[in-house]
Amino acid sequence: MQFLILMLLLAGCEESRDDSDTTAPSPEGEPAPVEHVLVVGAGMAGLTAARALHEDGVNVTVLEARDRLGGRVWTEDVGGASIELGAWFFHGVQGSPLSDFSDAQGIAYAPYSLLSTGMVWDEASASRVNPFETGVMETALVRFLRELDELRAELGDSADTHSGIGVWLDQQGWEGRDRRLAQYTIEQVMVEVGGAGPSDNTSLEWLFEGVGLSGGDHVPVGGFETVVDAMAQGLTIELEQVVERVKVNDDGVEVVTTTGEIWSGSHVLVTVPVGVLKSGAIVFEPPLPEEKAAAIERLDMGNVERVVVRFEEQWWSPGDLLFVSEAQDGRFPFVVDFTADTGVPTLVAFYGGRYARALQATQSDEEIVADLVGLLEQVHGGPAPSPIAHKVTHWSTDPYALGSYSYIPVGASSEDFGLLAEPVGERLLFAGEATSFDHYQTVHGAMFTGLREARRLGVTQTRVPGLEEW
Ligand SMILES: Cc1cc2nc3c(=O)[nH]c(=O)nc-3n(C[C@H](O)[C@H](O)[C@H](O)COP(=O)(O)OP(=O)(O)OC[C@H]3O[C@@H](n4cnc5c(N)ncnc54)[C@H](O)[C@@H]3O)c2cc1C
What we know:
With about 475 residues, the chain is an alpha/beta fold. It has helices at about 1-10, 45-55, 95-105, 130-155, 160-170, 175-195, 225-230, 275-280, 290-300, 340, 355-360, 365-380, 415-420, 445-455; strands at about 35-40, 60-65, 75-80, 80-85, 90, 110, 120, 125-130, 215-220, 235-240, 245-250, 250-255, 260-265, 265-270, 285, 300, 305-310, 320-325, 335, 345-350, 390, 405, 430. Helices cover about 35% and strands about 20% of the residues. The longest helix has 25 residues, at about 130-155. The protein starts with a helix and ends in a 14-residue tail after the last helix.
């Protein structure tokens, strides 16, 4: 999230495991021994938990629906360019299990800023936004963040962010083009791409609350998949296992897949995204407690999508672009030039929130790409060659994600993350980015939750290289 805010400013321990204090006591008073843990999901939460347990001598099997590891971390080759289709940044590197782990693995990461070459284009007037106006955008963002608490106090905890921004813009007395630029900056880029939720359903009360890490945004030099592959070392992982039923009884757990395979264990750690839990694609027996089910109902997944277009030659002026769409609808709020990063002429457009939901429901990939190329032609004043390769992400409809990452809708609160994290009895546990209010929406947050559940299952000292202090 943080990079968006920046952009818009335009400028071997040997302790043995001790099962006696691992889990809450069973009704008989003795905790169930942690013999075989089934981990559902090979994203960073599941892999981190599995690795911590594995290094502690626990028998672990990871069951993953896809034919690849990483979940919402996905590095893909698009026409010869290595592109992140999911997580892109280490959001902060101080006090982060992600950077500590990467350091220990020799995975380099470099600071990244979109500031230097950003050019803002106003679609309505088909003109470049001048430096004075980018100053207006900067001021709007800084002032909005500074006055957010006051606005919340005024509008109460049931206000949505779209209405809040409208009230605030009225109070500033901003009209016309200045107002449009300010609204675009706050609503499209910061709220709908950064926060991912539709702004008219994003809680103003909880907007950008949570704990961020310091140290700035960084990108892993060899791609995010290097972190995933390093974490998966030594683990037993079964791919293409779509879990549809999780049964828990006094003697253990059973996990059933859509092809009828049954996996048995002593404990199960479910790490699927909250979108999957909401969809009911996994049936729990017995059903989840009412409080937990209600929290799942209240939380939601936001939408952030990317459109990658690879050209034969770089026909545009190098640099990133921010688009202010005429209708304030969030159509491609910004486009990043990846040519220098990947060594091949490539642009990546981002969009989120309401527009992402609408666009994906109504347009084909080819139409989305044509729309983007049309905008690029407007900016660069001439016909564009056809892309030689493209990739449009579909996190919103991906059955194993059903959105990009969690956000806090009106009616939900920080407590819902805690309710989602609560184990059910001693054998059924939960991890994943949406189980951490402090670090939701992030990879390091997913790792925190994996480590938390490994501890709950008795890992008193993490032995994963780089994570010994966690
Ligand atoms: C477009 C986008 C951009 C992002 N940008 C950033 C960023 O720059 N920095 C950052 O820190 N974070 C970013 N994030 C968020 C980050 O990717 C996630 O917070 C993190 O990867 C979540 O990890 P997880 O293990 O909780 O969930 P996931 O990675 O989703 O892992 C859950 C796993 O469960 C599997 N699964 C689902 N259903 C089933 C089933 N029925 N049976 C078996 N397996 C199943 C899934 O396939 C998946 O592999 C971004 C995410 C997206 C989508």
